[in-house]
Amino acid sequence: MSETHDIFLRAHTVVVNPRKPKNRKRRGRRPRRNLKRWPEYAVVFDCETRTDTGQGLTFGFYRVLRLDNDTYQLEDEGAFFDDDLAARERDVLEMYVNTADTEVKTFPPRFPLHPRSKFVRQVFYRYARKGALIVGFNLPFDLTRLARRWPEGKKNEWSLVLVQYADGNENLHFPRVLIDPIDSKKSFVGFRKEWIPKDKKGRPKAKPTKINESRLLDLRTLLYALFNQPLSLKNACKLEAFKKYNLPQKVDHTPTGKVTLKEITYARQDVRCTAALLNAAKLEFDLHPIPVSPDRAYSPASIAKGYLEAMKIEPPEEKFSVSRKNLGIAMGSFMGGRSETRLRLQEVPVVPVDFTSEYPSTCVLLGLWDILTAKSLSFRNATRQVKKLASSITLEKCFRLKLWPDLRFFALVEPKKHILPVRTMYNGKTPNIGNNYLTSSKPIWIAGPDLIASAIQTGSAPEVLRAIRIVPRGKQLAMRAVNLRGMVEIDPYNEDLFKHAIEQRKLHKSDKDLHYWLKIFANSMYGFFAEINPEPTPERTPVKVHVYSGEDAYIPNKRVHVKEKQGHWYAPYLASLITAGGRLLLAMLEKSVMNAGGAHAWADTDALAIVSSREGRSLRRAPGCSGIRALSWSTVQKITDKFEALNPYDRAAVPGSILNLVDTNFEKGDPSCPRKQLLGFSIAAKRYALYERSGNKISIVDPKAHGLGYLYPPSDSPTNWHDSHEAPRWIYEFWEYLLRIALRLDGKPPNWRARPQMMRMTVTTFNVLKSLHEWKGFRSYNFFLLPVLADGGFPANIDPKRFRLVAPFESDQTQWKRAKCINIGDAKDGRRYGLTTSFRSSEFGKKAVVETFDNLFYRYMQHPETKSLGPDGEPCTAETRGLLGRSHIIAGRHRRIGKESDRRWEEGDDLESLIYVPVEYERPGDEAEDAALTRASESLIRKIKKIGIRPLERFGLGRRILEKICRREFVDRSTLREYDRMVRNYRAM
Prior knowledge:
The protein is an alpha+beta fold. Among the domains are: 256 residues, Nucleotidyltransferase, domain 5; 92 residues, no CATH class; 57 residues, no CATH class. Helix content is 26%, strand content 24%. The strands form 13 sheets. Strands 12, 14, 27, 28, 29, 30, 31, 32, 33 and 34 form a ten-stranded mixed sheet that branches. Strands 6-5-4-3-7-11 form a six-stranded mixed sheet. Strands 1, 17, 18, 45 and 46 form a five-stranded mixed sheet that branches. β38 and β39 form a beta hairpin. It is globular, with a radius of gyration of 31 Å. The two termini are 32 Å apart. About 2% of the residues have low confidence.
């Protein structure tokens, strides 16, 4: 079945005549004067809050630490409380500090208790002016508890006022704290430039202090950069890598929002844990000889970029002169990883396999280190060579190592039902990428590996109109060797960093910490080549941009409200080749499986679930699987062994194939143990589970939480659950019960199935705060719940377009049904709304109907794989079962867009993540084209094909127009009406 869709292509954009603000530097990333990596002092603090809507400060503890050799030692500790704290609660605090043992060795013992205002002035700012490191775990939340006001800054950031005069005016002697969110869990945090009073001649009355040299460190962010895990304070203290430090552990306690001795003990222990974690994180971070300060390490990519800087490798945009046109070609061909379901709603035996560090391996195979370390770079015309390669390529040739460096090219092609990654609106709502047949009368640029993948899967390559090859020249001068994590030396002149990291990881299996970090490091070494940071512009000052994408270069008629800032290591030609190389590896694997008479159940970036059982068997019972078998384990092993020819590593370090059986194929997840038979059940892309089954007993092995993770857990996981499980317990329970429904097995449903679906949200941006107009005292970084409303579940006399409920945060899931919600969709609606879970309830019409987790079981299973066709050749629907096929997309308009999903909010717990829409750069004349052009009806196309183009050409109709009509392309409306009239009046001679 063929469908005409507009296709979406990424673009490289440049702001036209950008304004250069005077003396304004980029927040959180401004260069600093040779500051110490770790300052002499550090102040660690933590705030406790009320549990009501406002989540205002009650009290907190702090520790002042001083650097002694390699660690920070306690110099002072104390407590603070909100200036408006009730007298009886303050008495409880005073009683505690007067009797508690302090860990500061002084006589007499010192344990100060300050009001919030005094703590901020005499501790927080005092040490900030000494250049101290201000530390918190989830620091933005704690900073906003200390703030008196939290207005919007000049660039949409939070601008916190911490000190005011008695009359409420801001005290300018204490600079504001600026918080610019990166995503819902990470932020750029720093002080605004300090105000210095001046005399009548404009000279400063006082010497500038070190306030701008002080650093604010969110310890949660630093640990994420080091371990690639979003950790809680409790889990961070239990990290395997930190066990050698014998860290204090967090107290198990549910905060009450009151000031009690139990609450005080709990809060003080939190600060003790945070201070100990700071030292553990410091020792871990200091293993990395990189020019990155700890408060600038936002992700594993920050560490990886730090190593490139330590090697003195110049960023591509500074070293190479790549034209904007070529950058546009690379961005236009950039696609993400491949993900799909191929066998839907079928229980099948599977053997999941994946590639050894797929993207780093792709970098090695393509020789991208040569490009990154080159002295210069050129893009040469390679049309003749690429045409020759495309016409002669075979699957077997793809297993030759020497072929891969020749794939560093981009080709302009005119696809005619060729398999390519296609970004379009499969579901009619949002652009998504599918690996489908594509026909396009307008040529498109694709990366070299995608051209080869299409050739081996389709049997012929698209027609190549033009091609350019990336050619590196020489080696950059003045690079130097570094030691990865202080242990593994890498010389950029003699060793490939991507290759060396994987080899050393395999060689250091006995060192668990180094082995784990090298995996993180290698896998973080590619994303920043396509780093785009969308920056909203003020509402009244949209910007004009120049758009480059493929063959197109233009300035849109409309200005845009988002500037896309390219990252420091931006090199889209590298990013495009890396992801395309990964798709080529998957295409080779899929073709090998098909040649063996088999099929795969699903694909997921670097992995394929091959339908396979110990002895192999027929799949004829599954719709569309006639003639397809479940391959035997031995056949799968032969396929994996074929990829040994593509092993680019030193065989002493990485022996065998780069395609391997995943550990879940073995007992206890250990490849040295016996094999076990896994079953797979897949619904749509990234919605699948691996499990074992014995009769009526199901044991979930690996459940995927895609489409579930945005929901707040309906029940809590047991203590130490994550020691042996990656996903929360409720995800395992969800999949087990879903499978029992799908397979018609008896089983007890989870006890949380009747609870409402809730999403936990965080006020990370000013726009979200403005929408929460009814909650007085609500501030930045507060969190709340968003009920998932049922379709049509609105109270009577409500405009659905202006109805969005939010509720105060409640960690006790049993209380969710009693939540009192406000409508943030209508500023004039001051009512409170209750929730009900049934349309049959007597309260329906008065309360809003919220979806339950019971509803989720059925809705989740009915999610169609919209990118594919069913066994009958029709689009996949909720009821489609069996072997899916590829859609045939006929390209309509080529539309240029910015970043598809703003990764600032990809975690899904920020309200703006629900409404993010990628910016589209409309070409001049697009609106007029839409009005003047149209496509032919299917009935007209059928008539033309039935009559034939040649007879109609003799009848007086133009061949070119007839062909465009049959290709479902846009045609002038008046021309189409005339052709439609003449075809209807045609009489065959």
